[in-house]
Amino acid sequence: MALRPEPFGALAYHYDNRRLNFLRSPDLVRLIETLDRYPSARAAFEACAIADHRWPSFERALEALATSEFLVAQ
Amino acid sequence: MTPTGTTEQLKAGLDAPICLTWELTYACNLGCIHCLSSSGRRDRRELSTAEAERVLDELAALKVFYVNIGGGEPTIRSDFWALVQYAVDHGIGVKFSTNGSRIDAAAARRLTAMDYVDVQISIDGADAATNDAVRGVGSFETAGTAMDHLYGAGFEGFKISVVMTRHNIGQLDALEVLAARYRAQLRLTRLRPSGRGADTWSALHPTHDQQVELYRWLRHRPEVLTGDSFFHLSALGEPLPGLNLCGAGRVVCLIDPVGDVYACPFVLHDDFRAGSVRDQGGFTHLWRRSELFTELRRPQSAGACASCGQYDACGGGCMAAKFFTGLPLDGPDPECVKGHGTALLVRSPPRPSPGIDHSRRTAVAFPGRR
Prior knowledge:
The complex is a heterodimer of chains A (about 70) and B (about 375). Chain A is α+β, with helices and mostly antiparallel strands. Chain A is built from three helices and three strands. Chain A has helices at about 25-35, 40-45, 55-65, and strands at about 1-5, 10-15, 20-25. Chain A is globular and about 30 Å long. Chain B contains 14 helices and nine strands. Chain B has helices at about 5-10, 50-60, 80-90, 105-115, 130-135, 140-155, 170-180, 195-205, 210-220, 280-290, 290-295, 310-315, 320-325, 340-345; strands spanning about 20-25, 65-70, 95-100, 115-120, 160-165, 185-190, 250-255, 260, 275. A nine-stranded mixed beta sheet of chain B has the order 6-5-4-3-2-1-7-8-9. In chain B, helix 7 (about 170-180) links the parallel strand 5 (about 160-165) and strand 6. The termini of chain B are far apart. The model of chain B has no long low-confidence stretch (mean pLDDT about 95). The interface of A and B includes residues 2, 5, 8 and 15 of A.
């Protein structure tokens, strides 16, 4: 997967399945770049200082990325 | 369906194209009667290997995820394989279109061993008679041999790319069977009145009923690739998968063999030429700063389509199709499914000059305007 910064956040591209995903918030991009350092998504949310009320939308975004194989459980 | 917010962001343009078409050469051993780029003869001004590598360096710096390489027949260039390898080594995926004439068993094995390279074999019918009428005698057999080699080498999921015409829409199921037999993926694209297609479009483009048939067929097959070709059909009901917008200068563009940069892969015409990769600032400057691309990213007027309830679905259709049939760019697509384009076409609006032409002077025996 490759990330490319864009004014709205980033574009994520999966070279194997050739899918394109829109990461529509700079915070989401920051989170994804550091996700693999944390044991859970919630730990990453906390470490990245994502406000509590945004957690549900971030969880949905991560689920969507997992469905399209951008994120793989470790 | 793409959320509206994303569509708006795309319309305003990205920092770099999502997908970029790069025609490596105008040389081609075929003379297809609908060739978008009127290819045939090599242009002696074509980019050298070193210049092509500089372009790839720029694309790598821009993080362009992949390029669609075409032509002409790109494999005719003696540095074709070296350029593909150079792209991949710099993190740029390659998908290339070929008529298959140079995909022998060794090439097929080589391709199968490469990561991030995808092949697209062009055929324009499910049988030789239908295909060869458009692409030339023997071209179906050539493509079939190439596909045999790819299949034999274990290249799964290569693409079979078909331009939809009124002669092959009735073969949709047969094309699906053909692709399945090769464990290939079917890709259907729209016939544009560009290049030599300007002269053949009225005889080849699908009828209204065929467009409806195609729309229904595609609605049931989200796995069939279309390159977002048929967004004008979204006015028939639920939108087809994809971005459903004209990406010209916003998410796509084209570099031609001599390094000229056009906003749309289907309009190789001076009116849509932003400049050359050989200009100071190169491709990056053209993408980010050229007047043409900036203009295309401004909000576009719906023009004559404003009063149609379907404008949000089809966005007025394809710029290339309108341009080369002489229709206003802020009005309906010539193949508007509501019939608004047909109403304008019957008045035979003056068409623009065909643009650049590298046709071989003997090969194409289709009566044209030139």
